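Why show two proteins at once? Because comparison is the fastest way to build intuition. When a single record is shown, students tend to memorize it. When two are placed side by side, the eye starts asking what differs. So, the first record is below.
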Amino acid sequence: MVVPCLQHQGGGVGGLVDGFRHHDFELPDPASAGGRLVHGSQSYRLCGPCYLPPASGGALGEILIVDDSRVNVGVLSAILRDRGHAIRLAADGPSALEVVKQTPPELILLDIRLPGIDAYEVCRRLRADGATREIPVIFVSSLEDGADRLRAFEAGGSDYVLQPFQAAEVVARVENQLKLFRLQREMARKTEDLERANRMLQTLSYLDPLTGLPSRRHFDESLEQEWRRARRQQSKLTLLLADVDQFKAFIEAYGAGSADDCLRRVAVEFSGGLHRGGDLGARFGGDEFAALLPATDGAGAGVVAQEIAQRVLGLRIPHRGSAIQVVSLSLGIAVATPAESESASVEPLLAAAAQAVQRARADGGNRIVAVG
């Protein structure tokens, strides 16, 4: 156990004081005094580490007592250690702030009359610090003065206890604040966990689980943003859509597992054909893929589409339902200049790209059709 070294301000008290037991301070037992313990006025100063473990068992909570009265410290320590709480001590404001910085307690009992920095300022500093603002502070005073109480609460105090101490009242007020503090801490933890889970869900909603590409939701939001940006900048915006040719026949011939593997491999090549940082490739739905190409004209989009088509053909994925016996794509390109568009919506661009893909499929697939 670490024990404190106390001295009277006017002289020594025989060196180490072991544990602040009642006889160390010549205080009556709380039960024999009907639960009422009178306060004393002798001051002390700390000359060493000040940690007092609970009277027995593990600590239920760690409490910092900030008081320059030796007897008050003894009384409060005895009451709270008997309840199973561990105690730390500070005799003035600067010491208290340093203790809290090094080892934040779960609760602080703060004497309203402190030398140097007063208790109100200590409390205000605690509340101004993000690391300590939630720690409950109970002010301790020998004066039943409404103005003192008001100042205490205005400074950020959580509660107020008067001297002479009633042991049952001290315990009730301390443990009530501890319960509230722990409940708030648990609620904050659960809120943080929930926010983390929501962020993860949002991230997952922006990714297609099969291919790992951005999802349709992500693509739609990006398309709206790029449309508005192109409108402001009076630049072109190109949309490229691609379908896997005869994909229904592929599923029937090879099964759902092979179809999923095919889509994953096509997704890798589709996204691999997009080289600019601002381009976005996504799974559009089913066997459809989409690419958003800002500030790109039809000729530039054609180069991109040609590379994607060749990369997919290069996979040489067998496809008995295809005329060329390997997996291929039908690609459609639509180009718009949003600033010149009669519509403020992206729908005409989407419709034009879909029509281009349909024409590519109707013409036998494995080809590129551009409109606009």
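Second record. Ask yourself what differs from the first in the token line.
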Amino acid sequence: MGVDILTILRRHGRVHGLIGPFVAPKLTPDTWEPFCEWLDAGLAGDMVYLNRRRNERRDVRCLNPRARSLVVYALPYSGAPPGTETVHSGLLSAHATGEDYHHRCRNALEKVVEALRTELRTHVEGWIHVDTAPILERDFARQAGLGWVGKNTLLINPDLGSRFHICEIALPFDLPATPVVVPDGCGACTRCLDSCPTGALVAPRVLDARRCFSYLTIEYKGSIPRELRPVLGTRIFGCDTCQDVCPWNQKATVRSFSDAETLAMDAVDILDLDQGGFRTRFRNTPFERTGRTRLIRNTAVVAGNLKTQKATDSLLRLLKDTEPLLREHAAWALARVRGREAAESIRVAYEKETDARTRSDMALSLRDARET
């Protein structure tokens, strides 16, 4: 029975773009205690949801009591380019292009489960997990033989590199575990640690999320630290530096997008989006999760780093936005883009500002503008 089910899972998974199945040898992770230590050290930043359900991560059966096997798949990044690169462009993480990967993975897994029910001619319970469930996915993917956890904390597969999503189906019957465990292929290489722009990789396989641009531009809801704003460069959404420098990605035999495709967006276009425009443009994409405020916050910093004169009018409008976070970052960007010419506009905004946090940051931007 197990072999037949694996054949079904493999055949229908392939139809829907999934690579696998890989079956974990057990339903308990090896890294739950190190994960808890990482949380307790504060390295997760403001991702409090990770701590809220930490105990459920001890065992897949905490979520799915009838589960007896965990099937793991890989889904390569979609690679659909979001727009044309221009001199005003900001960069996007490769995982952010195309349809939201949560939808892509879930839709594919639902079809696999339905095919399993059809071929077995019985109702099969299949519990689908994509990223947001309290499961230590990389741990189970490593146990199942999908790859090893690299020094950049990402799962690396010899053929795929690290540019893929992990998703799972918990099933109520025993399946044979994938027999091959992939050995650690990082060796003495430290390119990812050496190249991280903020030093967020504080040790091999240890990430301080509070300094990671993927966290700061996607998960973090607050103000991007002033000292990191210039270092952000042109990154609007996420950061791929530790993946881009990885030799395993450079020689990956399975690629999800071509080098000719641009992973960029025009910064000025983003700055001008109101809430309705944001919803229309980014529905069912990864940006929907981040929301208008955080995306424009990031883009304002990028406009400041690019010194995009074309963005001046947009930034001046953002000085009057209803969101304090956007007023704060618009003032910072204007000081970078226009210098002394923006000082008066920033001063007026500063004097009208009622949010204490924003007012404090605006004072620094006003100083910078006057000194430019």
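One difference worth noting in the second protein: Residues 101-120 form the longest helix (20 residues).
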